[in-house]
Design a protein that fits this description.
Elements (H helix, E strand, L loop, with lengths): L2 E3 L1 H14 L2 E2 H5 L11 H4 L1 E3 L9 H9 L5 H12 L6 E5 L11 E5 L9 E5 L2 E4 L1 H8 L5 H11 L4 E5 L2 E4 L6 H10 L6 H8 L9 H11 L13 E7 L2 H7 L3 E8 L4 E6 L7 H16 L3 E6 H5 L1 H14 L11 H19 L3
Helix pairs in contact: 1-5, 1-6, 6-8, 7-9, 7-10, 7-15, 8-9, 10-15, 11-12
């Protein structure tokens, strides 16, 4: 029999998988605007588009899990499926005609949809897991617009993982905004698919942290959904330096959190709001001076500035104007929708990234 892990269980699995298969910061910054397809699960495992011979009962599910091969990577990821937060049931997908009630151990989700290609990833004999794009749609049935937006940024980003031997590592991205858009367009009739399609169009790739996601979600999301709709920027963009700038920065290139190439302007988001070490202050100063030599101006946005909605809005609007995008006066109702978006994105991060 086959187990098809889905919903929150699948999300937790892919989070653990992205931690276990990290990228170096150099690989992350070198990805460009679109990550290569060979980074994603669908390129590393066999995939399927059908539900077949589904395990449904508690006995069948537990029996199949017990028979899985003792693969270290698989065991590591499966362990994290239920250890996060409190004891959660296994979420599984099935196509059985008869309704089967969920239990404390197994949360069952019945579906008779025609799934697009690559919807299920085969991890081992008898074990399939919903692909990240399908998980995004599944989570739309239980998340608000802003929460789903935060999830999309996470899936398309590379959040910090750990440091080993002075080599910073980040989580592997699970998908891209274009892949989310394409998948949600092909999947019809699924609960949450309409919201998922709408949100996918607002997701931007290459966020490197929760803080960057919150700023990007506020800045680049369309005004009708509560964002500011400012001019598009490159996120975590590597900027090559001139010879003179290299001498100042002691590096051939630097990375800007948000960069508008045509405007020669960038924003660095410092969410710590604390005094950096003397060494960090020196690096930041040399980075600013080197960029200035090459005609690129940068400013630092602190967490306190971000939390001050009015100040943050003015700063981002000025940046957008500088990048060549004029805006019409926002309606009075926008302020309420904007606060709602901020709250929803923050709510997701408080729940899933509490530290």
């Amino acid at each position: 029999m086959n187990i098809y892990l889905s919903h929150l269980t699948a999300l937790r699995f892919w989070r653990a998988w992205s931690i276990l298969r990290p990228l170096s910061l150099r690989e992350f910054h070198g990805m460009g605007k679109v990550a290569s397809a060979d980074l994603f699960p669908s390129s590393l495992y066999q995939t399927s588009m059908v539900l077949r011979d589904c395990a449904i009962t508690d006995r069948d599910v537990c029996g199949t899990l017990d028979l899985l091969p003792k693969m270290p990577e698989l065991r590591f990821c499966l362990r994290d499926c239920t250890d996060e937060f409190d004891a959660q049931p296994w979420h599984i997908l099935h196509d059985d005609k008869a309704g089967v009630k969920s239990t404390a151990l197994i949360a069952r989700h019945r579906s008779r949809l025609d799934f697009p290609r690559g919807s299920f990833v085969r991890l081992a004999e008898g074990l399939f897991i919903c692909a990240p794009e399908l998980v995004f749609v599944q989570m739309a049935s239980s998340l608000s617009f802003g929460e789903l937006l935060a999830l999309g940024y996470e899936m398309c980003g590379c959040y910090p993982r750990m440091t080993q031997k002075d080599v910073p590592l980040v989580r592997r991205p699970l998908t891209t905004p274009n892949r989310l858009i394409a998948y949600t367009t092909r999947l019809r009739g699924a609960r949450g698919a309409k919201l998922a399609r709408t949100v996918a169009k607002q997701v931007r790739a290459k966020s490197g942290s929760v803080m960057e996601t919150e700023l990007a979600a506020v800045a680049f999301t369309s005004e009708c959904y509560g964002g500011l709709g400012i001019a598009e920027a490159l996120i975590n963009a590597p900027v090559a330096l001139s010879e003179r700038a290299r001498q100042i920065t002691r590096s051939s290139w630097v990375v800007l959190d948000f960069y508008w190439p045509d405007a020669h302007f960038g924003i660095e988001y410092n969410g710590r709001d604390s005094h950096a070490s003397a060494e960090q202050q020196d690096r930041d100063s040399r980075k600013r001076d080197g960029l200035m030599v090459d005609g690129i101006e940068t400013i630092t946005l602190t967490n306190s500035q971000f939390q001050d909605t009015k100040e943050c809005t003015k700063l981002l609007d000025r940046t957008s104007y500088r990048a060549g995008k004029r805006r019409r006066k926002r309606s009075e109702a926008h302020a309420s929708v904007h606060r709602k978006l901020r709250y929803q994105v923050g709510k997701f991060h408080r729940r899933h990234f509490p530290h």
